[in-house]
Amino acid sequence: MEATDAAEQLAIPLDDLAEEPSRADEHRVAERVLEPSRALVPLDLGAPRISPAERLVRLAYRIGVPGKTLTSPLRKSAGSRLLATVDTPLAGDRSAGIALRAGHFLVHGVKAPIGQLDFASASAKLTPPFERAVHGYGWLRDLAGCCSREQAVPVAMRIHTAWLDANPKPGKAAAWEVEQVGHRLLSWLVHAPLLMTEDRLRGRTLAAISESARWLDRNVGNATDGLGQVTGWTALVAAGLLLSDGKPRRLFAEAGLANALGDLVAEDGGVLSRSPLAQMDALALLVELSACYKAVKRDPPESVTGMMALLVPPLLTLMHGDAGLGSWQGAGAVSAEKVTGLVRASGVRTRPLKDVRQWGFQRATGEKTVLQFDAAPPPLPRHARAGCASTLAFELSSAGQRIIVNCGGSAFAGGQVPLRIEQGLRATAAHSTLVLDDANSTAVLIKGKLGAGVNEVEIDRRTIGTGRGTATRLEASHDGYSQRFGLVHRRILALRDDGTELLGEDVLLPFGKRGKRGKIGFAIRFHIGPGIELRLAEDRKGAGLALPDGRQWQFRVSGDFAGEVAIEESLWVDGNGRPQPIEQLVVQGMTSRSGGNFSWLLKQMG
């Protein structure tokens, strides 16, 4: 069997996902079409089963009857109080926590002094990453994970007091978007001991918690997208669990959360935004919600535990050999520490999916080599956040070294990634694929949205015999250039099972009955991973790749290609949001508008 990679190390065997033939079967298998991946768990995303009386309570709460009236109508209100302390398994960013103790917010490598920050939502001019960090209170987890409670409390109280002073009541600016309120309320509930140690803040914090929960009761349906709704419903469930007289809110919110999860996630477990960052956010929300259930000694409903089991395998699909994520749909190369920490906190042990039709990313492995392939249309505009025109791009890593990458990182814009290049990082040219006439395969719009372009992707996955073992063959095509240029792009990738060769072919096929006349410019871009040195071959038909560990790979185009291979500058955004200079190999030239065919090979030498 193939050697396990970093994603497999988080796995237990599952017969349902055994897609590759064993060595004993190779002599009997010349070519085999693989079955589509199947969901790992049967999952009912309906609201938890409750009694008729509880259904009446839920209905009454939905139409506006206060929770106190429903739970204890004859008892005098004693005010809100927290029923339990939550022990979350999620670890924060230690570096960001240390920076907070030193007096700074640290977001994607950019520092902002706490004392100079305007916490007022209506007037503050914060970049999107700082808005999420400050108003979403994600910094509480970072602070909690870097020091003892006694050391964290003074810092937390200082920032919390400043925020409450600047935001005395709900408004309409960034701090009062449903997703921000949801994150903030959940953080207040989970990390309450950092905020309510002293009497002078306890009352204000409990009042803010109650007010935020009531605001979400009314506004959770106004979230800008599916992940925002899931965030709001998650916070409401947590409030229903942890606040006194919270049972009506919990019953109401559990039903809302189940529906929102069903709208956010496809049947194979991938979020509809196709973003690994959104996948991680959704999983982290459910991990913390499970901790809230545990705190009050209740079992989470199947819609929560089952959804966590469904979210993990697609995430593992995008793990490279270094255990970090590939750079897809705005994500940078999220570090192994963050990914593995989140997966372990979920308690889910499973294998990565390899053939994920709805999530859209194909995964192939050969020994220590990992291939990731985007074989689906970009997300629909209503789901896209940092949507990228990346269809038919691929990434390749070997023994933990990233060889072919995408630039990535548009979702980190506003930190060390300048906002002015955000759209460029989402373009087709920022991905390792073919570009026609310097145009995006799908239109890249402002604010992370996408326009017209790729509507359909055909994908075929097979295991084939090569004469020297077997290989995984992926063939996909998209129609993103068909209306503008009358051409369909088809890409074929074949990775040998020993991981030493990746054979590629990019084909342009005429769309419709008649091909167009004339020629059109094309470029096939291969963004090269960090630390790799490139050297062009003398005939300019290829290049040598010298990896940091001393291994050598070679890139070659077919002998009948009329153009040349060139080396150009590029950049790559790491998991901390830091742009790093890299290089790219570019195969470019002119081709007939009636079609063309370009073959290339990446091969390990020695």
Q: What do the pLDDT scores average to? A: 88
Q: Could you please say which CATH topology of the domain at 8-30 and 356-605 applies here? A: Beta-galactosidase, Chain A, domain 5
Just give the CATH class of the domain at 8-30 and 356-605.
Mainly Beta
| Sheet/helix structural class | alpha+beta
How much of the polypeptide forms β-strand, as a percent range? Answer: 15-25%
Main sheet strand line-up:
1-9-10-11-12-19-16-15-14
The residue ranges in which pLDDT falls below 50 over 5 or more consecutive positions are 12-43
Shape: elongated
How many separate helices?
Answer: 16
What is the helical fraction, as a range of percent? 25-40%
Terminal CA distance reads 23 Å
In CATH, the architecture of the domain at 8-30 and 356-605 is: Distorted Sandwich
Task: Tell me what the structure shows.
The chain is an alpha+beta fold. It has a domain at 8-30 and 356-605: Beta-galactosidase, Chain A, domain 5. It contains 16 helices and 19 strands. The strands form three sheets. A nine-stranded antiparallel sheet has the order 1-9-10-11-12-19-16-15-14. Strands 4, 5, 6, 7, 8, 13, 17 and 18 form an eight-stranded antiparallel sheet that branches. Strand 17 and strand 18 (579-592) form a beta hairpin. Helix 9 (199-219) crosses helix 10. The longest helix is centred in the middle third of the chain and has 21 residues, at 199-219. The protein starts with 30 loop residues before the first strand and ends with a strand.
